[in-house]
Write a structure and sequence with these properties.
Protein name: WRKY domain-containing protein
Number of helices: 9
Shape: elongated
Strand order of the largest sheet: 1-5-4-3-2
InterPro entries: WRKY_dom, WRKY_dom_sf, WRKY_plant
Strand content: 15-25%
Organism: Rehmannia glutinosa (Chinese foxglove)
Distance between the termini: 27 Å
Largest sheet: 5 strands, antiparallel
Order of helices and strands: HHHHHHEEEEEHEEEHH
Structural class: alpha+beta
Subcellular location: Nucleus
Keywords: DNA-binding, Nucleus, Transcription, Transcription regulation
Length: about 290
Amino acid sequence: MEFSSLMNTSFDLNAKPLRIIDESLLLRGALMEELSRVSAENKKLTEMLTVMCENYTQLRNQLMEHTSKNSTGVDNTPTSRKRKAEINMNNGNNNNINGTENVGPSESSSSDEDSSKKPKEELIKAKISRVHVRTEASDTSLIVKDGYQWRKYGQKVTRDNPSPRAYFKCSFAPTCPVKKKVQRSIEDQSIVVATYEGEHNHSHPSKLDANSTSNRSMTLGNVSCSTTLSSSGPTITLDLTKPNPSPQETRSLREQMASQLTKDPSFKAAIAAAISGKFVQQNNQTEKW
DNA sequence: CGAATTTGACCGGCGC
DNA sequence: GCGCCGGTCAAATTCG
C-alpha cells in the first residue's frame, strides 16, 4: 500500500481546471481530509490483512496436523449401504489414490475377523469430503464449479431428500477415479452439497480457472465450510452438522475461515480491487463537486 | 456430427 | 428369499 502515490492524486486533482477558485480551495481541503481518512482506513486494512495472514500461517499448520490425523474419516457420515463398485474403485486403482490415506484407523479399528469379512470397509471412508456451496435457490443446474471437468452420468431422487442427486465423474483424465455427488441441502435449498469420493490422480486442469470461480473449501472435523468469491463479494457457507459445537470450536473455525480467506490470492485481489475501487469512486465523487 | 446430458432400466448390497 | 434403495449403465435426446 503506497500512500505517497495516493497523496499525489491531490496534486493531479488540483491541476484540473476549476471554475471558481474558492470552490477549488474548499474542494482541495475536503479532498485532503477525505484522502487522509481513506489512507488511515487503508492502513488499518493493511494491518488487519497482515495479522490475518500471520494467523493463517499459524492456523494452517494446525489444520494440516488436524487433517492428517483425521484424513480417513473426514466428515464422513457413512450410510449403511456401500457398494462393491466403490470398493473396487478405491482398492483396484493403481494410481495410489488411497495410498497415504488408509493408514491409521484401519489398523486400530478392525480386527482380523473383520478384515477377513470386510477387508475393504475402511477404504471406503478414505478421501470422502463434503463441500457446501451456496448458490441461487432458483438455480437447478446442480453445478459446483471447482475447476475440474466433470461428466454427469446419472441422477437420482433419493429417499431422504426430495431434491435430485446428480452423479459426476471426473472427465479431465480418463483414468481419474474421482466421483462427486451433488445434491441440494434438504434444510436450505440455496446450499448445494457436493460429496467428493477419491482423489484426483492428475494436476488441477486450470488453477486460473479455479481462482476465477474461487470456490474454497475445507473440512474441520464434523464441521465443513466453504467460501465463494464472486463479484458480489465473498460468501461463506457453513455446514454445522455437529449438533452443538463448543464456543472454542466455533472460534477456531471462524479464525481458520478468516485465515483461509486472507491466504486466498483471489480474496486479496478482491480486497485490493474493492479498496482501489473505493478510491476511484471517491475521486469521482469529489470530481463532480 | 460429435460431445454432453438425460433418464429409465438394471445391478447389487442390505435389512427384514 | 424378497423388496427396498443407492448407484451405475447405456440408449435416447439435446446441444453447440
